């Protein structure tokens, strides 16, 4: 089982020697800044099926640790045919973040932040220290840098673009700047290491242990377009829109006007077309990313040429080389694209695919009634010497949950800062705050503002308390998901958090691995209209150090 997106071969694309300036730039301008879900078709999955899918994601996330402990999520529950695969594939981690933000409860956002913090942690502790993210990691709790274990050290631009998208989504939802900083570092790595000018331009595949991957992937360039477009929206830096256009131009050249589909990419020369591999996702993801009516027929190519019936299940395969089994993740891609396009008959087709996946949730081989298996039976070929198995999969489950509400992960999801006002960050060390008892300001290079407040809670010399003052509830009185940036080098600490001098709530903070390494935790606080005070202390034990708090513009 490969830990790359869907197998190495899907990275190819190109030919036709059309210059970037000649193709597709207007769609970039139209797409830049687009936000939200276009839930055009009336598709649905049952509330029970939805709840069970999210329960599966939560269980996979809590397999090795719970609460705010920084950690990634194991991608599969491997069956006997698949073997002992326990990796956390970073593409799957990004999808889990998207699915959690799409539903968007306070607990969902808090869980998404834990995963986002883990992605920032592996980025910060990578041996190369250059902003990259690897293809897969061990899903062990990240309690110290020594726990970062890249089980697949490929620096794959498709996976990295998905991680970048997820980090931008988190920033848009929470306003926590570290997510935007991490995303920008990922984008800078891609721009520096994969930008290409030969042939149709675009971006190459990244690096693996043998060196630079010189083929170019249609799928990867779609991913990069969406990532860079989101980044341009949230940073206000138009350079990322220009770079998104470079990726889009490559994808446009990959269009096969005769068969109304996209080619997978190029061969390793970066110029000649790879015509030997015809996957599903380039045809659905291109529509979700670009909404280009000129190429919308690519969705229909998948419907007609990748159709599979395997017993009670209908859907599509991974690629044209093997149509013996249903690939449920890809079937969810197709359902989502049909729902978003919402042309004649699209809603019925999308609902039919969703009904088949919902049936698989409770009747497919190796089902547990909660998650979605990757394939209807073992050994669905990826057309590149690897296989998909009837193994429960976070990626397939996440795509099913997204498609069930026609949520488009290639756009900023609803609820982000671009649509709901700008969150406000309050630094702990600000002179406007009140520090009492043992509380003191400590230098912290990795913290926002370069400082944190420590010695909080019960200490040998007394009790330390930090009180933020002038905290504004911009949306009026209500329950606000407040993001607390903190550091904790111990196993775990608790803080008693009080609003406006009221009864405190005790919150358990997981370790960040070191007092110099910040992490984030979301806490729902009831704020009054106007300005508020928020205090952190603990009369019974030491509390975590506090870096900052971020308050959204609107309450839940």
Structural overview:
By secondary structure, the chain is α+β, with helices and mostly antiparallel strands. It has 14 helices and 26 strands. The radius of gyration is 23 Å and the shape is globular. The model is unreliable at 1-39 (pLDDT under 50).
Report a brief summary of the structure:
This protein is of the alpha+beta class and 556 residues long. It is 34% helix and 21% strand.
Q: Major sheet, described briefly? A: 6 strands, antiparallel
What number is the mean pLDDT?
90
First and last CA, distance: 41 Å
Strand content: 15-25%
Structural class: alpha+beta
How many strand elements?
A: 26
Number of helices: 14
Cα radius of gyration in angstroms: 23 Å
State the shape: globular
Unreliably modeled segments: 1-39
Helicity, in percent?
A: 25-40%
